[in-house]
Write the structure tokens for this entry.
Amino acid sequence: MSTNPNSTDYDNRRVDVTGTVTKADGTPAPNIPVTIQEVVRFTTWNPWGDPIDPTYYEPRDLGKPVTDADGKFTIPDVDIDHVTGSSLLNVQHEVQITALYDEDGDLNTPQDGYYADTTVAANPKSSSVTYKVNKKKVKAGDILTVQGKVTLPKGVEPQGTEVFLQTYWEQEYDVKTTAEDDGFFVMSVRVSGYDDTFELRTAPTDLYVAGAHQALPITNTSLPRT
């Protein structure tokens, strides 16, 4: 299976998906229904080093073409994009296209299932985030306020861009807000005695706009001295 082209960008998001199904002896397999999916992948937040899958998968069905007399199948003009309302925090900008044929239609009998996949690069435009903090030294009980602005590529609306504030190493974010239509945002959090990681992340709503990341110059004086 392959796509043409094998990469996409902000202005060019469509590809043609083609493939061939063959029998064990290498001859074409006609009249075979093939399930095609697009899988948007995300990097799983896992600071503990647990043996879990480092990738989260969000699939959607693209169709079920039937192979022709030569064993070939095609889905033209496939939109390589993120179509659900889920957050794009930690999205990977390489989308997977999968093809599956299962002889008896039962995925619990994998011995008669056949699988192939390919990837399509989704080359994003860059974005940035600027910020101000109300204090750079904090202690337990203080209110830390971060205000700033998300800047996206020209012509892309910043409204709805998610902004996340992390304060502790085990949690990717403690506070979440969304940017206004002018890109500005403000968020506050009550500092705990164990907060030790102050970072800002953004997640635009478009797969083809990369998020931004900033480490904040915050020191928690309530932490034990080392």
In short: The two ends are 55 Å apart (CA to CA).
